[in-house]
Design brief:
mainly alpha; Glycerol uptake facilitator protein; two-stranded antiparallel ribbon; MIP; MIP_CS; transport
């Protein structure tokens, strides 16, 4: 039996194409958000989540460095688990309130993809940095004796590595994280592959974990400008500030690359924009 044809092709393909429709991009300047309680609730959630993230993770770093015996305590692996585990917990807790960014690089990547407005993005970044400062400040207050002598959990380029290598590590590490965020929260994937249960915070937390395993020896692992900024402000060391630009430039470049890859390659945004060929919705 011949397939019924419409102006756009087979009717069965038209119906399949309508199974999912991309949501409209967020307005660039949405000043109406400033009048909504949900906006301020999201800012509070981002502040508190980043505070808790920095408190637990930096305290773990200080505890690890204070161990006389490398086999006694959390160890190198435990530090990576602290960062990844806290991201899993916190994203799970606040994803429905603010989206669970807890990272200016994630916010920046989602801004480039027009998932949120510029107003919300800038506000998120400010509150994430404030939360990070408060979190590291609590660590210093609780662990004052060992905090300053053990580096304050601040990020810097490790001995034996160049600034270029450190920048590359931050770019690649953040690319892995932001790429995972896009993939785990892709609403089209959820609609198409609804038979595959995906708990978004889990792969995001694992991404943070594995990136820390790879880059702790190089930079102490930033991949989060708020994390690096909060530790730098409280520790306030010249060497840390000299290297600090790496922990903004690297994550933002990595987030930009991940957003472009997901939106224009995996989601065929470039093909749609150029009109070179019609995207196959089944891919």
């Amino acid at each position: 039996m011949a397939k019924e044809m419409g102006e756009e092709g087979p009717v069965e393909h038209q119906q399949h194409a309508k199974d999912y429709v991309d949501p409209p991009p967020a307005p660039l300047l949405d000043l109406k958000e400033l009048k909504r309680w949900s906006f301020y609730r999201a800012l509070i959630a981002e502040f508190m989540a980043t505070l808790l993230f920095l408190y637990v993770s930096v305290a773990t770093v200080i505890g690890y460095k204070s161990q006389a015996d490398a086999c006694d305590g959390v160890g190198f692996l435990g530090v990576a688990w602290a960062f990844g585990g806290m991201i899993f917990i916190l994203v799970y807790c606040i994803a429905g309130i603010s989206g669970g960014h807890i990272n200016p690089a994630v916010t920046f990547g989602l801004l480039l993809a027009r998932k949120l407005s510029l107003v919300r993005a800038v506000a998120y970044m400010v509150f994430q940095c404030l939360g990070a400062i408060a979190g590291v400040g609590l660590v210093k207050a609780v662990m004052e004796d060992s905090y300053s002598s053990l580096g304050g959990g601040a990020n810097s380029v490790s001995s034996g590595y160049s600034k270029g290598t450190a920048l590359g590590a931050e770019i690649i590490g953040t690319f892995v994280l932001v790429y995972t965020v896009f993939s785990a929260t892709d609403s089209k994937r959820k609609a198409r592959d609804s038979f595959v249960p995906v708990l978004a915070p889990l792969p995001i937390g694992f991404a943070v974990f594995v990136v820390h395993l790879a880059t702790i020896p190089i930079t102490g692992t930033g991949i989060n400008p708020a994390r690096s900024f909060g530790a730098a402000v409280i520790y306030n060391n010249k060497t840390v500030w000299d290297d600090h630009w790496i922990f903004w430039a690297g994550p933002f470049l990595g987030a930009m690359a991940a957003a472009g890859y997901h939106q224009y390659i995996l989601r065929a945004g470039a093909a749609k924009a150029l009109g070179s060929f019609r995207s196959n919705p089944s891919i």
